[in-house]
Amino acid sequence: MPQSHVDLADPTFLDFPYVRSLADVVDALPPGPVAVVHVGVGAATLARYVAVTRPGSRQRAVEVDARLAELVRGPLGLSKVPGCRLVVGDGRAVVEALPADSADLVVVDAFAGARVPAHLTTVEFFRAVAAVLRPGGVVLVNTADGRPLDFARAAVATLAAVWPDVAVLAEPGVLRGRRFGNLVLAASAAPLPIAELARRATRADAPARVVAGDDLVRFASGARPATDATAVASPAPPARAFR
C-alpha cells in the first residue's frame, strides 16, 4: 500500500491529501513550539513538517515495526530532525505509560498493512490519550473507510464519547461514499478552529470538506462508540483503492 511520501529536501511539501489535512490542523493551533506524540510513524512526514514549521517542538514518534523504524531513522534521516525521538513499541502501550498533561497534540496514524488496528480505535484508548493531552490539546486520527462509512461514523461517536468538540476533514468524494479513502478526525476539550480549518481546506489542487457541529451529529447518527470489547480493525480497502 502507498504509505508515505517525504521530500527530504523540502519537509513542507505534502503530497498526500490526508497529510495536508493533518497539517492544516497543526497550522491552526496557537503559534509556537508544540509537544507532539505520533502513534505510527510512516516516513515521519508530519513530524518533519512540524519540526520545520514550529522550531523548538518536542516530538516522540512511536512505531511498532522495528525494520521500518530503522529505515526511517537511518536512510530517511529522521535522526537528524531536531527535537524528534523515535521509539519502537506498541503505540497504545507507550501512550498509556506517558505522563499526564505532557502533550499538546497526539497524532494517531497507525496502520497494519491497510487497516487501522482495533486496539487503537476504542474509547479506552482515547481516554488514555485524553490523559496525556494538556488542557486545550488536540488529538488527530487518520482512518480510512468507504461506503456506507460505518467505521468512520463509529470513530466519530468514539471520539465524541471522550471529547466535546469533534470534526472530520476529508475529500468530498470520500464523505459522500463515492470512493474509499482517508478521513482525518480532530477532537479537543476546547473549541476547534472550524472556520480556520474550512478556509485552509479550500485549496485548488486537493480540496477537503470540514464536517462539524450539527452536520457531524447527523453524519454519526445511530453509530455506537467502539470499546475494547467491540472494536474491529478498519475495513480492508478494495483492490487498487489507493493506486
User: How many domains make up the 3D coordinates?
Assistant: 1
CATH C-level name: Alpha Beta
* Fraction in beta strands: 15-25%
Order of helices and strands: HEHEHEHEHEHEHEHEH
Number of strands: 8
CATH homologous superfamily identity: Vaccinia Virus protein VP39
**Biggest β-sheet: strands ordered side by side in the sheet:** 3-2-1-4-5-7-6-8
Global outline: globular
**Structure class:** alpha/beta
The largest sheet, given as strand count, sense and whether it forms a barrel, is: 8 strands, mixed
Description:
The chain has 243 residues and is an alpha/beta fold. It has one domain (17-219): Vaccinia Virus protein VP39 (Rossmann fold, 3-Layer(aba) Sandwich), CATH 3.40.50.150. The chain has nine helices and eight strands. It has helices at 17-28, 45-53, 66-73, 91-97, 123-132, 150-160, 172-175, 194-201, 213-219, and strands spanning 35-39, 58-63, 84-88, 103-108, 133-145, 165-170, 181-188, 209-212. An eight-stranded mixed sheet has the order 3-2-1-4-5-7-6-8, sandwiched between helices. Helix 1 packs parallel to helix 2 (45-53) and helix 1 runs antiparallel to helix 8. The longest helix is centred in the N-terminal third of the chain and has 12 residues, at 17-28. The N and C termini lie close together (8 Å).
